[in-house]
Structure formats: C-alpha cells, structure tokens
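Field log, afternoon session.

UNIT: design team B
ACTIVITY: writing a sequence onto a fixed backbone
BACKBONE:
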C-alpha cells in the first residue's frame, strides 16, 4: 500500500520485509530516506536503526504502533530523525518524507561561531579544527541556532524550521535530538557552553562574545 502511495507521489520505493536483510537491501538500493517499521520480523527495527546509523547519515523515519514515550525516545536515541504513529494519513507521511528530503537552506558564507566553523556548501562542521560527524538533521538544527545567536527558539519553532512541521508536533523530537547534538559539540554535554536550555521556553546559542 505504501509503495503505491509513494510511487503516486513520484517517489521510487524498495521494500524489505525482514530486519535480517535490511543492510543488504540498503547497500543495493542506496536510499535517500528510510521508512523503518519497528515491528520487523527477524532483527527488530531498533537494532536495524542502529546498524544503518553506523554506516550512514541518511534520514530515518520510524513507523511505529507504539506511541508510549519510552519506546519513541528509544527509537530516536537509536538514530531515527522522526517518527509517525500508526494509523497515519498518507498525506502526513508524504509531508514528513519531503521535509527530510529537502536540502538545507544554504548560507551565503561559512558560519563561524567561536571555535565552530559550519560550512553549508560542503555540509561540514568542525570544532577546534576537528570534524564533527553530524547527521543532516543535526546539521540543520545547529545551523538554525548558531545562525541566530542569542535568539531563543521554542521547541515548536524548531520543529517548524528544522523538521518542517506546519502543524503542532511532538516536542520530544527536539529534546532527544538536542541531547544527541550536544553530545557531539559540547566539551561537557551536562554543562553546555554552546547551546543552553532556557527553562520553560526552549534553546539558545550562547554567543562567544557574551
């Protein structure tokens, strides 16, 4: 059913029905985005997500019948970029896919923020001269915050700007991805010096000159 829907939207889909065969299919098809059901026969979707993330930064959208927060958070922490709970509307799924496929907005010049250099053209980030391995979504999230120093972004605004939501979304997406991003860019993720939490509001990049 999903293949018919996606091909009707001009997308090409390949189906893998067993978690044990996903990595072989992934290497052969080289997808631009992965729709990953957590309830797979064979190797479970959570384990598959971790395997994909070890090999690639391709966007991953979880399809799950489990709406409980611990299950969703576990999937996001395994490396998924977004999730959608069954049953869902086909239009919503297609919108999520197109949001993940869109190219990041290009800045005119590399963005320098303290000892971080973000290069939109090369889609690379370095800190203290060392490359940081960010997923495309983490790159967009960092670019949004560093490109607007000292501005406080609510989680809802970040969902709109980074995930492409044009309706109320689930803010746990932002929280989990912020934790992952901080683990990569901060010296001490528990005491962040680059992106701080504004209690009750959202997140803010801390200007190096502040």
């Amino acid at each position: 059913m999903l293949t018919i829907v996606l091909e009707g939207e001009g997308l090409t889909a390949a189906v893998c029905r067993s978690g044990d065969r996903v990595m072989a299919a992934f290497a052969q098809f080289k997808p631009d985005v992965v729709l990953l059901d957590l309830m797979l026969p064979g190797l479970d979707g959570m384990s598959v997500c971790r395997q994909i993330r070890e090999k690639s930064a391709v966007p991953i959208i979880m399809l799950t019948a489990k709406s409980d927060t611990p299950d969703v958070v576990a999937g996001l922490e395994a490396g998924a970029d977004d999730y959608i709970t069954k049953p869902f509307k086909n239009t919503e799924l297609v919108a999520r896919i197109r949001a993940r496929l869109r190219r990041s907005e290009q800045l005119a010049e590399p963005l320098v923020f303290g000892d971080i250099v973000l290069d939109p053209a090369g889609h690379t980030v370095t800190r203290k001269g060392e490359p940081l391995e960010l997923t495309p979504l983490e790159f967009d999230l960092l670019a949004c915050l560093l490109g607007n120093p000292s501005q406080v972004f609510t989680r809802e605004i970040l969902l709109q700007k980074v995930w492409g939501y044009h309706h109320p979304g689930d803010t746990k997406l932002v929280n989990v991805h912020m934790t992952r991003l901080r683990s990569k860019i901060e010296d001490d993720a528990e005491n962040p010096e680059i992106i701080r939490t504004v209690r009750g509001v959202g997140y803010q990049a801390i200007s190096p000159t502040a």
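LOG NOTE: The CA atoms of residues 14 and 29 lie 7 Å apart.
NEXT ACTIVITY: expression trials, pending approval
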